TrEMBL record:
<keyword id="KW-0443">Lipid metabolism</keyword>
<dbReference type="InterPro" id="IPR000794">
    <property type="entry name" value="Beta-ketoacyl_synthase"/>
</dbReference>
<keyword id="KW-0808">Transferase</keyword>
<keyword id="KW-0276">Fatty acid metabolism</keyword>
<dbReference type="Pfam" id="PF00109">
    <property type="entry name" value="ketoacyl-synt"/>
</dbReference>
<feature type="active site" description="For beta-ketoacyl synthase activity">
    <location>
        <position position="167"/>
    </location>
</feature>
<keyword id="KW-0444">Lipid biosynthesis</keyword>
<dbReference type="InterPro" id="IPR018201">
    <property type="entry name" value="Ketoacyl_synth_AS"/>
</dbReference>
<dbReference type="InterPro" id="IPR016039">
    <property type="entry name" value="Thiolase-like"/>
</dbReference>
<feature type="domain" description="Ketosynthase family 3 (KS3)">
    <location>
        <begin position="6"/>
        <end position="414"/>
    </location>
</feature>
<keyword id="KW-0012">Acyltransferase</keyword>
<protein>
    <recommendedName>
        <fullName>3-oxoacyl-[acyl-carrier-protein] synthase 2</fullName>
        <ecNumber>2.3.1.179</ecNumber>
    </recommendedName>
</protein>
<dbReference type="GO" id="GO:0005829">
    <property type="term" value="C:cytosol"/>
</dbReference>
<dbReference type="Pfam" id="PF02801">
    <property type="entry name" value="Ketoacyl-synt_C"/>
</dbReference>
<comment type="similarity">
    <text>Belongs to the thiolase-like superfamily. Beta-ketoacyl-ACP synthases family.</text>
</comment>
<keyword id="KW-0275">Fatty acid biosynthesis</keyword>
<dbReference type="InterPro" id="IPR014030">
    <property type="entry name" value="Ketoacyl_synth_N"/>
</dbReference>
Length: 417
């Protein structure tokens, strides 16, 4: 579609359930104050695990958003999605009714889906027999159910799907929703990512792959992106949701506009199931495509919310990719990893990090990378170490990269009438 015929798309609502708090306000306060959201695992007995730390969502009560009966028929990942979506819709002052329901869609990504339900039901199957398994097991487990249940609980009857691209899933969801609106297939979309994979089996699997930090005696300093002493990522859980609207539709109802989403780039490394391609060529292309899609040049970028996982391979590779995509300007911008505070939400990370990126633009404040005490020599950009920074943020990128070689970049900018 010709650029001139594309609809402009703006962000009008935000929702967040995170290890830093269960509202957008709590999440943002935690980010800009550099607060740690990682601690010892309480969701299961992790005493036999090599990794015993995570960024858990604490104090979350699904019954603040749905009935107890409904909550019992949802896995935690879907509860998070419905809750954050309801927050975002309320924040946008958006009413879904018979007049607009068919023009409002939902795309919510997840990397793993209802793993806890699967674990619990397999235990029942083995110990009590197959006839004791729950009839709700499958609809509680399948990854698309976060999007489906969000539609059921909000009345959104437009395009509805689920992205399952590992740790890029949340960003793919936002990007795909953006595309649907700009091409006229919807007037508004509820989109983002959710995950609740802090479970015994998931932690065991990632630990077996030597992907997780084992800094069990010091959880507050375990997630340390770009630091030379990093030893792996820390799992997190939660959901981040955005309400996107076609600009004229948002203006017609007097909506508050946080920012405009202008670009979406996605590529694949086609290299390895878990490792990024050396040099980060695929990630660099995703950033370049997002800039091109938004009619942006590298010198316009103020901030990059990095994928920044705190793993030995990702951080220098992403640094190289940023320098390839932005050239010399890469040394003039702020780059930070909010995973240093939340841990890595897998498929939910792109959702909460898109929320953080939009808030950085709205508030002209860049969140820090905490625990950055001894920078890796291969990571030589400005990672906003330990303390947030007040600065004008006109254009910001949000990066998400996933197992399988998925690379996604979203480009946001300050709204200009």
């Amino acid at each position: 579609m010709d650029k001139i015929n594309r609809k402009r798309v703006v962000v009008t609502g935000l929702g967040a359930i995170t290890p830093l708090g269960n509202t957008v306000a709590e999440y943002w306060e935690g980010l800009h104050s550099g607060r740690n959201g990682i601690d010892t695992i309480t969701l299961f007995d992790a005493s036999r695990h090599d990794c015993r730390i995570a960024g858990e969502v604490r104090g979350f009560d699904p019954c603040d958003y749905i009935t107890r009966k409904e909550a019992k028929r949802m896995d935690r990942f879907a509860q998070f999605a419905v809750a954050a979506s309801k927050q975002a819709i309320a924040d946008a002052g958006f009413v879904i009714d018979d007049l607009n329901a068919e023009q409002v869609g939902v795309i919510i990504g997840t990397g793993i889906g209802g793993l806890k339900v699967l674990e619990d039901q397999q235990e029942i199957n083995l110990t009590r027999g197959p006839d004791r398994c729950s009839p709700f097991m499958i609809p509680m487990m399948i990854a698309n159910m976060a999007a489906g249940l969000t539609a059921i609980h909000t009345g959104a009857k437009g395009p509805n799907t689920c992205t399952v691209t590992a740790c890029a899933a949340g960003s793919n969801a936002v990007g795909d929703a953006f595309r649907l609106i700009e091409r006229g297939y919807a007037q508004a979309m509820i989109c983002g990512g959710t995950e609740a994979a802090v479970t015994a089996l998931s932690v065991a699997g990632f630990a077996a792959a030597r992907a997780l930090s084992t800094r069990n005696d010091d959880p507050a300093h375990a997630s340390r992106p770009f630091d030379r002493d990093r030893d792996g990522f820390v799992m997190g859980e939660g959901a981040g949701i955005l309400v996107l609207e076609e600009l004229e539709y948002a203006l017609s109802r007097g909506a508050r506009i946080y920012a405009e989403i202008v670009g979406y780039g996605m590529t694949c490394d086609a290299y390895h199931i878990t490792s990024p391609v050396p040099g980060g060529a695929g990630a660099a292309r995703a950033m370049s495509l997002a800039l091109k899609d938004g009619g942006l040049t590298p010198d316009m970028v103020s901030y990059v919310n990095a994928h920044g996982t705190s793993t030995p391979m990702n951080d220098p590779t992403e640094t190289a990719a940023i320098k390839t995509a932005l050239g010399e300007h890469a040394h003039n911008i702020a780059v930070s990893s909010t995973k240093s505070m939340t841990g890595h939400l897998l498929g939910g990370s792109g959702g909460i990090e898109a929320v953080a990126t939009v808030l950085a633009i709205t508030n002209d404040r860049v969140p820090p990378t905490i625990n950055l005490d001894n920078r890796d020599p291969e990571c030589d950009l400005d990672y906003v170490p330990n303390v947030s920074r007040s600065q004008t943020v006109e254009v910001a990128l949000s990066n998400s990269f996933g197992f399988g070689g998925h690379n996604v970049t979203l480009a946001f900018r300050k709204y200009q009438p």
